[in-house]
Every structure is written in structure tokens, then in C-alpha cells.
Design a protein that fits this description.
The chain has eleven helices and 15 strands. The protein folds into two domains: 2-115 and 222-296, Orthogonal Bundle (Penicillin Amidohydrolase, domain 1); 306-392, Aminohydrolase, N-terminal nucleophile (Ntn) domain, beta-sheet knob region (Penicillin G acylase, beta-roll domain), CATH 2.30.120.10. The chain is α+β, with helices and mostly antiparallel strands. It is flat and about 80 Å long. One of its GO terms (molecular function) is hydrolase activity, acting on carbon-nitrogen (but not peptide) bonds, in linear amides.
């Protein structure tokens, strides 16, 4: 409860903006300029995922989220909104919900693992295929052997005697062995991408690269982030206790990504809870910190968690996707109808939200492919019965 109260007191605008990013309602805060962001993030569906997680959460988790929510809303009930809202002509915000905290957690996790490099590679291999077809060479093979070369691992090490020093055995390597030579790929089974397919991929990349909010959600080797964690066994320390050094640095921002906190609950000598560290405004967690018995940290292993699929589709009489085709069978696409509102800043009317009347083909419908873990369709080419779906 107190954690939520303090977050609202110190970081309400940051919390509100972040939950709006996660729910695809930024334009209700910043005006029509946020519509493009809202369409993309509502399509991906962090709030949808948060609702499913909340339904599956334990009773204890729900109680923690509710207590935090009560603290946030208590501050909202007792205070006027901070100064950031005044120029936006906003005098009230929606009450906090437990799902808002989960949606923020989904957004943060996505930001730390979202990788669009598959799309970049698809454009590259598709372009080389097209050029190869025109110039008389195998574009797929050139891409796989040169730009994105793949070869069997080499089990040799560069430091003589290293394996023996740690109890290992240095294998004898036969440089003429087939296992130590680059394998020849059978490119006949690779997908051949059409110009239309490449165009859809390029459209997705352009949307993300041209939007500052979306571009910040890409984790593709950015040099301004790079967490790390180190642990030392107690067998190697003077005290006999293990050591952990956690360096969870992210890009610098204002206000900062983290919120330092020390939470204590107890009466006299009876301590019920005592922990200190940092967490994310909007979520009732200490992501990195210590209690009276142990410390914990975290870092990000940038594994590939985002996959994109070309889908064969069938459209209805209105030209809207109605089915995907998988192994020759039609599978119905789920429709989620969307309405987008935008704050009318500068009209002198407070809390004035206006329906932006986004068309069905421009974001007014979110298309869900159940087989892709309820993933959305990001791009549609109705004329060629093709689409691109996303699974995260």
C-alpha cells in the first residue's frame, strides 16, 4: 500500500505514461500525435496479455497488486495532479488497476528482449534473392555463406593449456575432417520472398524506426544498455559468504527508470518485512535489492523471443482478413474492434477526448491468430492474400 502511495506521490506522470504505452492509449494523454504509437502497441497487446496473467495469478499475487493499487488510488483521491498535466489540460486520470501494473511489467520485459533483426535479415535475404534471380546467381546461398554465414563450432581454444588447467582435455583436431569444414546448405528448401512480401516487412520496419516511442522499445544491440551480474562462491571470499555484484544499467532517462526504496514493516523488535533496493514505478516489486538474509539482482540475456510469420490468408467481401491458411486448412481470425481517443490540447476544454475514427484497415480492428499464441497480424496485403503475424 505504502509503496503504491509513494510511487504515485513521486512518479505519477511517469507511471501513467508507461501504463498508457502498454495499453495503447498514449494519445488520450498527448493528443493525436500518439495515435501511431497506440495502434502498434494495442495491436501487440500488452494489456491483453496482462489480463490473462492476472486471471492466472495466485491469490497472494492478486492481494499484493490490490494493496499497491489501493495506495496509488489513495494518493489520487487526496491530491491534485502534478504539474505535467496542466499544459495537457487534464485534471483527472483513470484510477489505477492491478492489471496496469502487470501491463507495465509486460512492456518492460518486451523492451528488454524485443528484437526486429529477423525483419532486417528477411529484407536482406529477399533482396539478394531478387538480385540473384536477375543476375544469375543463388542469392540465398550467398546470403547464408557470406552475410549470415553459419558453420559448425570449432572446439579448439586460443589459450594453450587452458582446458587442461581446469581439468579438461584438449581434443585433437583434424583440419581435414568434414566436421571442421563449413557445411554446404541446401538452399532449394528456403522460402523465396516476393517483392510484395519484402514490401510488407519494410513497412513494419519503417513504422518502428520513424516513431521515437517504438524505437525505444527495440533491443537490438543498442550501445546505451548492457547489464551484467557477477557471483562469487563463499568458498572464495574472506567472509565465507557469497558475493553478488549486479549492474543493471539501462539507458539514461529522466525521470530515471528505477525508483530506490526501503520498505520496512514491524512493531518494536518484531520485523515482518525489511527490504531495500530499486523497482519500476508502477509495479509493486523490488527488482534488485536485499533483505535481512540475502541479496538478489538481475540482468538481461537477449535471447530471441520475437518471431514473425508470413501468413496465407483469405479475405471477406469487405477485403478484410477472415482466415489464415495452415497446412491447407482455413483457421478463423479473431477480430478485436478498437476505438481510439485523443486529447484535444489547446482548445481550452479540460479532459476533452475526441474519437479519432480510425478505419478498420488502419488499426480499427486488431486481427488475432490463435495459433501464434494469440499473436496479432501486423501487416496485411489483401490483394495478394498475404499477411505478417507476430508471436512473442
Amino acid at each position: 500500500y505504502m509503496y503504491g502511495y509513494l510511487h504515485a506521490k513521486d512518479r505519477l506522470f511517469q507511471m501513467d505514461y508507461t501504463r498508457r504505452l502498454a495499453s495503447g492509449t498514449v494519445s488520450e494523454l498527448v493528443g493525436p500525435a500518439g495515435i501511431a504509437t497506440d495502434i502498434q502497441l494495442r495491436t501487440i497487446g500488452f494489456e491483453r496479455a496482462a489480463l490473462r496473467s492476472y486471471q492466472a495469478a495466485s491469490t497472494q499475487t492478486k492481494e499484493i497488486l490490490q494493496a499497491y493499487t489501493n495506495g496509488v488510488n489513495a494518493w489520487l483521491d487526496e491530491n491534485v495532479l502534478p504539474i505535467e498535466y496542466s499544459n495537457l489540460e487534464i485534471t483527472k486520470v483513470k484510477p489505477w488497476r492491478p492489471v496496469d501494473s502487470l501491463a507495465i511489467a509486460k512492456l518492460v520485459a518486451f523492451q528488454l528482449s524485443n528484437d526486429l533483426q529477423e525483419l532486417d535479415w528477411t529484407v536482406a535475404i529477399g533482396t539478394m534473392q531478387q538480385v540473384g534471380a536477375a543476375a544469375g546467381f543463388d542469392g540465398t546461398k550467398l546470403f547464408m555463406d557470406d552475410l549470415y554465414r553459419s558453420a559448425p563450432p570449432d572446439d579448439r581454444v586460443t589459450v594453450p593449456g587452458f582446458l587442461e588447467s581446469i581439468g579438461g582435455v584438449q581434443p585433437k583436431v583434424d583440419n581435414n575432417s568434414p566436421t571442421n569444414k563449413s557445411a554446404s546448405l541446401d538452399t532449394s528448401k528456403f522460402t523465396q520472398y516476393s517483392t510484395k512480401d519484402i514490401g510488407m516487412v519494410e513497412n513494419i520496419l519503417a513504422i518502428w524506426k520513424d516513431n521515437p516511442d517504438l524505437d525505444k522499445l527495440r533491443n537490438d544491440g543498442s550501445k546505451d544498455i548492457g547489464s551484467n551480474t557477477w557471483a562469487v562462491s563463499g568458498a572464495n571470499t574472506v567472509s565465507g559468504y557469497p558475493l553478488v555484484a549486479n549492474d543493471p544499467h539501462l539507458a539514461l532517462d529522466m525521470p530515471s527508470v528505477f525508483y530506490p526504496v526501503h520498505l520496512y514493516a514491524g512493531v518494536d523488535d518484531k520485523v515482518d518485512f525489511n527490504a531495500a533496493g530499486v523497482g519500476f514505478p508502477g509495479a509493486p516489486v523490488i527488482a534488485q535489492g536485499c533483505n535481512e538474509k540475502l541479496c538478489w539482482g538481475s540482468t538481461v540475456h537477449p535471447v530471441d523471443e520475437t518471431d514473425f510469420y508470413f501468413e496465407d490468408i483469405r479475405v471477406n467481401l469487405f477485403g478484410l482478413p477472415a482466415f489464415t491458411v495452415y497446412e491447407g486448412k482455413e483457421e478463423p481470425i479473431q477480430y478485436l474492434f478498437q476505438v481510439y481517443y485523443a486529447n484535444q490540447i489547446g482548445d481550452g476544454v479540460v479532459n476533452n477526448l475526441e474519437n479519432q475514427k480510425i478505419g478498420y484497415g488502419a488499426g480499427g480492428i486488431t486481427y488475432i491468430v490463435k495459433r501464434r499464441n494469440n499473436g496479432p497480424i501486423l501487416q496485411v496485403d489483401s490483394a495478394n492474400n498475404r499477411a505478417i503475424s507476430m508471436q512473442y
